[in-house]
From TrEMBL:
One of its GO terms (molecular function) is transmembrane transporter activity. The keyword Transmembrane helix applies. Pfam families: BPD_transp_2. It is found in: Cell membrane. This is Branched-chain amino acid ABC transporter permease. Keywords: Amino-acid transport, Cell membrane, Membrane, Transmembrane, Transmembrane helix, Transport. The chain crosses the membrane at residues 15-35, 42-64, 98-123, 190-216, 237-258, 270-298, 310-328.
Length: 343
């Protein structure tokens, strides 16, 4: 029971990241009909927004302590972050400690601008081109963005810690009447799952209950008819591209403490998330979310030592095996719509 509960928690954690990235991918495909292989790079940029904010907040001035000396007898150098000098030691230290959540405020406008520029500057020229062309150009863009990040931030992982209050673990076992310290789980991973649930719920509520969202959904179903009504649907789709980029960026920001960002983190998630989109059904937002959590839980159970001892390497291929089985039985995916990518 303890092992099952722990693997479910691991699966929800992984599934949250898959679902958030797949949600953005599906938003772009459902509105613009574009297969965006640069979406993983947007997740990566979001993670490095967290890195950037942390680096900026920890910029320090160096002073010499005339009393204390190092082992060579030289005056000891003291680094004092500028934010502590500007806002006081306590508030400045709190800003540094909460740099990851604060990075969301920085990432949202940055990702919106990047999404709009990407759509207006490049993607719009490939709306009516074959999907193979879209994949090639967006994959090339992803490589360019990846190499830019590598150039400016280096090839190594950059630790981006969560706030101190979330660095411990929650004892699920004790809460459920089991032995203590048997089923424990990091607080920040639980925060990430809750964050993903809020973002997914907000996106669905925005599309379902706002006038803007209703027009977008109508445009996804019949773009030409909506255009004949005098609505600038292209402008709204551009905004949706920016929102999808913002969702990917926020997902990357909050994932930074879980997996220290590096320049290829976007590619690591992109392939898996695209499999999630296909399994869920191309163009289906509920399908993308459902498939993300299902495949995350499946991958988590496949990583158990008992399973890997029976089938070595199964944890590396289980998602692809599941995708093959699902697509053989349901060619449109779990919740795919008729006619999507069937021409």
């Amino acid at each position: 029971m303890e092992a099952i509960l722990l693997q479910v928690l691991n699966g929800l954690d992984k599934g949250s990241a898959y679902a958030l990235i797949a949600l953005g991918l599906t938003l772009i495909f459902g509105t613009l009909g574009v297969v965006n292989f640069a979406h993983g790079a947007l997740f990566m940029i979001g993670a490095f927004c967290a890195v950037t904010v942390q680096k900026v907040l920890t910029l320090s001035k160096i002073t010499l302590d005339p009393v204390k000396t190092d082992f060579l007898g030289n005056p000891l150098q003291i680094k004092t972050p500028y934010v502590e000098g500007w806002f006081g030691p306590e508030f400045g230290a709190a800003l540094i400690d909460w740099s990851v959540p604060l990075a969301i405020l920085f990432a949202i406008p940055i990702m919106l601008v990047i999404g709009v520029v990407m759509e207006r500057g490049l993607i719009k020229h490939f709306y009516r081109r074959p999907h193979a062309d879209q994949i090639l150009v967006t994959f090339g863009l992803a490589i360019v963005l990846q190499e830019l990040i590598k150039h400016y931030f280096g090839a190594n992982q950059i630790a981006t810690p969560a706030p101190d209050v979330f660095r411990g673990s929650f004892d699920f076992g004790a809460m459920m009447g089991m032995d203590p310290n048997v089923v424990i789980y990091p607080y920040w991973r639980l925060v990430y799952f809750a964050f993903a649930a809020v973002i997914i719920g907000a996106v669905f509520a925005f599309l379902q209950f706002t006038t803007f969202g209703m027009v977008v959904r109508a445009g996804m179903a019949d773009r030409e008819t909506v255009g004949l009504l005098g609505i600038n649907i292209d402008k709204r789709f551009t905004i949706m591209f920016g929102l999808a980029a913002a969702v990917a960026g926020m997902a990357g920001v909050m994932y930074a403490p879980i997996n220290s960002p590096n320049y290829h983190i976007g590619m690591d998630f992109l392939v898996l998330s695209f499999v999630v989109v296909v399994v869920g059904g191309m163009g289906s937002l509920p399908g993308a979310v459902l498939a993300g959590f299902l495949l995350g839980i499946l991958e988590s159970f496949a990583s158990m030592n008992e399973i890997k001892s029976l089938i070595p390497g199964i944890d590396q291929i289980i998602i692809y095996l599941a995708a093959i089985i699902i697509l053989l039985t349901r060619p449109r995916g779990l919740m795919g719509r008729k006619g999507v990518m069937e021409d």
